[in-house]
Q: What sequence folds into this?
């Protein structure tokens, strides 16, 4: 039974990856950071089947201990300060978690499990002000936020440890991927949750920033399969993962509101508070290399994804009401 160590197991991707690897027969060990509460909502249904160890990307010794104890065959580094907007208000912390945290983890792996395979969660935010469209593995990076800058560092330190020390380390450059488990602060979930609350008469509007930016949105459940496939390749390399299609935030609103028979124009208000100091205007992947070399393709398309999220948010609010 192979062992996988997942940082960020309590996050959106970590929860789907844990499910996916358990189904494949892995022993799954998840790193969690100490908190005064235990917010394991996304993995509550897995809690008896995974092992949790306490460590933090800020703390080198805890990472060394976690790797020494778990003895992993595969390490998936999904932990990060992952919200782009927060990276302008907490730029130093974002750099510590999202950039230097990766060096700490690679250093721990180099010492405690040099034969393990390492996955780094790179991001389409690294392309930022895009140099070509669609974006592929060879497209130059031009990050537009402290988060994007931190991810570029994390990406290159992963390449560097591969080339310097022969570690089997790969980066998946993943475009936006969403699900009912997406954090409420991200725009897809913010919109689908608002649609649910408006449809149930709990509120009548939602405040958004820039409606014209374009994103390549896929389903998180499909993307964790790509992570695993990357680590099974005999030679470590980096891959772009996305759908190859792109939509504006406005189109996202149209899709989500019209599903419940609502007109987004009557419910979406502009708020300068949600406009970013620098924007990434257009992202769209060229995932052809992943298709050819990994045999990976997305299964859930945009409309199905948005409807799945609206349905889930409606059900959650109905259940909460019923429980009161
Ligand atoms: P997420 O839901 O925000 O989860 C982030 C995880 O990181 C949480 O489990 C969080 O733990 C953990 N974490 C944060 N700081 C930590 C620290 N100092 N030490 C240990 N753990 C820490 O993010 P996600 O959407 O699943 O994304 C997973 C990864 O992929 C992230 O690295 C993200 O930047 C990257 N990425 C995401 C997307 C996307 O569209 N989702 C696209 C490209 C790349 P707590 O529960 O304790 O907060
Ligand atoms: O913003 C616009 C916003 O926060 C998408 C992370 O997972 O994907 C994610 O980063 C777009 C931006 O995701 C609001 O300006 C308008 O253009 O959902 P988001 P993101 O910034 O693309 C990448 C790949 C990652 O790696 C990240 O970790 O939507 N937008 N109005 C808004 N965005 C938010 N959040 N809230 C608004 O009110």
A:
């Amino acid at each position: 039974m192979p062992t996988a160590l997942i940082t960020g197991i309590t996050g959106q991707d970590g929860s789907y990856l844990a499910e996916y690897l358990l189904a494949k027969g892995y022993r799954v060990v998840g790193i969690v950071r100490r908190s005064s509460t235990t917010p394991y909502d996304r993995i509550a249904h897995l809690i008896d089947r995974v092992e949790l160890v306490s460590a933090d990307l800020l703390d080198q010794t805890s990472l060394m201990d976690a790797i020494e104890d778990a003895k992993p065959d595969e390490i998936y580094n999904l932990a990060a300060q992952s919200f782009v907007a927060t990276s302008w208000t907490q730029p130093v912390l974002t750099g510590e978690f999202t950039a230097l945290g990766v060096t700490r983890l690679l250093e721990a792996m180099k010492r405690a499990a040099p034969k393990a395979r390492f996955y780094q969660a790179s991001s389409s935010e690294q392309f930022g002000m895009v140099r070509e469209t669609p974006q592929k593995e060879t497209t130059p990076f031009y990050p537009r936020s402290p988060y994007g800058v931190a991810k570029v560092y994390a990406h290159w330190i992963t390449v560097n440890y591969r080339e310097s020390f022969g570690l089997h380390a790969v980066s998946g450059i993943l475009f936006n991927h969403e699900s009912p488990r997406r954090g409420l602060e991200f725009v897809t979930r913010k919109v689908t949750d608002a649609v649910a609350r408006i449809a149930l008469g709990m509120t009548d509007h939602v405040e958004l920033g820039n409606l014209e930016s374009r994103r390549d949105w896929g389903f998180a459940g499909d993307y964790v399969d790509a992570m695993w496939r990357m680590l099974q390749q005999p030679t470590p390399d980096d891959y772009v993962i996305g759908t190859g299609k792109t939509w504006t935030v406005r189109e996202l609103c149209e899709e989500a509101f019209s599903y419940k028979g609502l007109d987004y124009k009557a419910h979406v208000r502009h708020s300068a508070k949600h406009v970013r100091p620098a924007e990434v205007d257009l992202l769209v992947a060229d995932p052809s290399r992943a298709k050819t070399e990994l045999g990976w393709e997305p299964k859930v398309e945009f409309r199905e994804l948005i409807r799945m999220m609206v349905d889930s948010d409606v059900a959650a609010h109905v259940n909460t009401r019923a429980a009161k």
